[in-house]
Predict the structure.
Amino acid sequence: MTPTLATSTTSRPPEGAAAAMDRSGGDASSALLEVRGLHAGYGKAEVLTGLDLRLPRGNVVTVIGPNGAGKSTLLNALMGVLPARGDLRFEGQSVARSTLEERVMMGLALVPEKRELFGTMPVEDNLVLGGYRLMRQGQRQWRQGLERVYTLFPRLKERRAQLAGTLSGGERQMLAVGRALMGDPKVLMLDEPSLGLAPLVVREIFHTISQLRETGVSILLVEQNARAALEVADHGYVLETGEIVLQGPARELAGDPRVIETYLGAKRAPAGETAGD
Ligand SMILES: Nc1ncnc2c1ncn2[C@@H]1O[C@H](COP(=O)(O)OP(=O)(O)OP(=O)(O)O)[C@@H](O)[C@H]1O
Ligand SMILES: [Mg+2]
């Protein structure tokens, strides 16, 4: 069983806590995205061996863990990029059999670890390619989508004609997030958005994540930068070798000695320690 700091994935939260878990005022007992017993891997090598996770509507949920834990495998399985087994529900409906395209149309979006931009195409064309779902809804929605992205990332608007391959690391990340937002997703899954970025740019990206949450997008954030992730998230999971080993409200996880020691890089000072020796 997964050690839990407060609410477990299976038991219902106490009354009052339910409202806090679901920022949009929806029914917190049915999460926007919920998986039970998720198995996924590569051929015979199973990476995830029965994982449970829930993303309440309007929340930021983070999954932290070391290299090779299975974080990217998890996101790819949820998106339908990788085959998976288990109970996977989106808005209460089973989507385990839905294809990648169907999941995109339902409102799931993934910004993969390798940003996969079209380097020889201008910024705006990269965004346009992300707007397929909105395009199907009509020209007006699509234009509004583009304006929304430019409002969130004014720098992309300034550089709309620049080739994506010539952007800085931070700008590429903004473009990758912007392109995913062009689909007007309900769930945005981000795979290590801070990877390889300077601390100042990381701050900017995490600021964007909290801004996005205010617009009502639910976010599943995979990160190695546990400190920043737990600061922005409502709830956190610790994934190690394909298993959730710890979970709880992000603030409590950030104060957990096991998380501090392994992921926050600060050793606890022994009680009564004196300075200067
Ligand atoms: N295409 C693949 N084929 C075979 N094994 C893979 C493949 N991709 C990943 N793996 C293996 O699956 C395990 C989980 O990898 P995954 O990429 O999900 O980890 P991660 O938590 O995202 O790590 P990182 O923090 O380094 O991105 C690792 O042991 C990895 O070697
Ligand atoms: Mg990864």
